[in-house]
Amino acid sequence: MRLAVDKLMWFQANADRTATHLSAAQLHELIERYLHRIDDMLQELVRANSRIKGQRPKAKKEDDLRAEIDAERASYVKGTFGTSERAGGRASAIVDGG
Predict the structure, then answer these.
(1) How far is CA 20 from the centre of its chain?
(2) 45 with 61: CB under 8 angstroms?
(3) 10-65, pLDDT tens digit by residue?
(4) What backbone phi and psi angles, to 5 degrees, belong to 46?
(5) What's phi and psi for 83, nearest 5 deg?
(6) Distances (CA, A) of 65 to 15, 40, 44, 48
Protein backbone atom coordinates (compact mmCIF):
# COMPACT_ATOMS: atom_id res chain seq x y z
CA MET A 1 0.00 0.00 0.00
CA ARG A 2 2.82 2.41 0.84
CA LEU A 3 4.35 1.91 -2.62
CA ALA A 4 1.05 2.89 -4.26
CA VAL A 5 0.84 6.02 -2.10
CA ASP A 6 4.45 6.95 -2.91
CA LYS A 7 3.78 6.44 -6.63
CA LEU A 8 0.65 8.57 -6.50
CA MET A 9 2.49 11.33 -4.64
CA TRP A 10 5.31 11.30 -7.22
CA PHE A 11 2.86 11.64 -10.12
CA GLN A 12 0.95 14.42 -8.39
CA ALA A 13 4.19 16.32 -7.75
CA ASN A 14 5.56 15.80 -11.28
CA ALA A 15 2.50 16.05 -13.53
CA ASP A 16 1.44 19.35 -15.08
CA ARG A 17 -1.20 20.54 -12.60
CA THR A 18 -2.69 22.91 -15.18
CA ALA A 19 -3.36 20.19 -17.75
CA THR A 20 -6.80 18.63 -17.79
CA HIS A 21 -5.73 15.79 -20.10
CA LEU A 22 -2.48 14.18 -21.17
CA SER A 23 -1.80 12.79 -24.62
CA ALA A 24 -0.53 9.24 -24.86
CA ALA A 25 2.95 10.59 -25.64
CA GLN A 26 2.88 12.90 -22.60
CA LEU A 27 1.71 10.07 -20.36
CA HIS A 28 4.43 7.72 -21.64
CA GLU A 29 7.07 10.44 -21.10
CA LEU A 30 5.85 10.99 -17.53
CA ILE A 31 5.96 7.25 -16.81
CA GLU A 32 9.49 7.02 -18.27
CA ARG A 33 10.58 9.87 -15.96
CA TYR A 34 9.06 7.95 -13.05
CA LEU A 35 10.88 4.76 -14.04
CA HIS A 36 14.19 6.68 -14.15
CA ARG A 37 13.63 8.69 -10.96
CA ILE A 38 16.18 6.72 -8.94
CA ASP A 39 18.89 6.39 -11.61
CA ASP A 40 21.12 8.94 -9.84
CA MET A 41 20.77 7.15 -6.50
CA LEU A 42 21.57 3.82 -8.15
CA GLN A 43 24.65 5.21 -9.90
CA GLU A 44 25.90 6.71 -6.63
CA LEU A 45 25.55 3.31 -4.95
CA VAL A 46 27.50 1.68 -7.78
CA ARG A 47 30.26 4.32 -7.48
CA ALA A 48 30.41 3.98 -3.70
CA ASN A 49 30.58 0.19 -3.88
CA SER A 50 33.24 0.27 -6.62
CA ARG A 51 35.62 2.20 -4.35
CA ILE A 52 36.09 -0.94 -2.30
CA LYS A 53 39.35 -2.64 -3.32
CA GLY A 54 39.15 -5.91 -5.15
CA GLN A 55 36.01 -7.27 -6.73
CA ARG A 56 32.97 -5.09 -6.22
CA PRO A 57 30.67 -6.74 -3.67
CA LYS A 58 26.95 -7.04 -4.24
CA ALA A 59 25.05 -4.38 -2.35
CA LYS A 60 21.59 -5.23 -1.03
CA LYS A 61 20.32 -1.67 -1.53
CA GLU A 62 21.52 -1.70 -5.14
CA ASP A 63 19.88 -5.09 -5.74
CA ASP A 64 16.64 -3.86 -4.16
CA LEU A 65 16.58 -0.73 -6.35
CA ARG A 66 17.26 -2.75 -9.51
CA ALA A 67 14.48 -5.21 -8.58
CA GLU A 68 12.06 -2.33 -7.99
CA ILE A 69 12.92 -0.76 -11.35
CA ASP A 70 12.60 -4.11 -13.16
CA ALA A 71 9.23 -4.85 -11.55
CA GLU A 72 7.85 -1.40 -12.41
CA ARG A 73 9.09 -1.59 -16.01
CA ALA A 74 7.58 -5.08 -16.39
CA SER A 75 4.28 -3.76 -15.02
CA TYR A 76 4.40 -0.87 -17.51
CA VAL A 77 5.17 -3.18 -20.45
CA LYS A 78 2.39 -5.60 -19.39
CA GLY A 79 -0.10 -2.73 -19.19
CA THR A 80 -0.75 -3.12 -15.48
CA PHE A 81 1.23 -0.06 -14.35
CA GLY A 82 -0.97 1.98 -12.04
CA THR A 83 -3.57 -0.72 -11.52
CA SER A 84 -4.52 -2.21 -8.22
CA GLU A 85 -3.74 -5.86 -7.56
CA ARG A 86 -6.74 -5.95 -5.23
CA ALA A 87 -8.99 -4.67 -7.99
CA GLY A 88 -8.18 -7.73 -10.07
CA GLY A 89 -6.11 -5.70 -12.52
CA ARG A 90 -8.79 -3.08 -13.12
CA ALA A 91 -7.51 0.48 -13.20
CA SER A 92 -7.61 2.17 -9.83
CA ALA A 93 -9.24 5.55 -9.35
CA ILE A 94 -7.16 8.70 -9.81
CA VAL A 95 -7.06 10.77 -6.67
CA ASP A 96 -6.88 14.53 -7.00
CA GLY A 97 -4.28 15.98 -4.68
CA GLY A 98 -6.18 19.20 -4.40
Answers:
(1) 23
(2) yes
(3) 988 998 888 888 888 988 899 999 988 888 888 888 887 777 655 556 678 888 88
(4) -65, -45
(5) -105, 160
(6) 23, 11, 12, 15
Which letter, b or e, does each residue of 4-16 get, where b requires 16 or more Cβ atoms within 10 Å of its Cβ? Answer: eeeeeeebeeeee
Question: Comparing C-alpha atoms, which of 2, 17, 7 is closest to residue 80?
Answer: 7
The pTM score is 0.63
Per residue, the 3-state secondary structure of 15-73, as one string, reads CCCCCCCCCHHHHHHHHHHHHCCCHHHHHHHHHHHHCCCCCCCCCHHHHHHHHHHHHHH
* 27 φ, ψ (degrees, to nearest 5): -65, -45
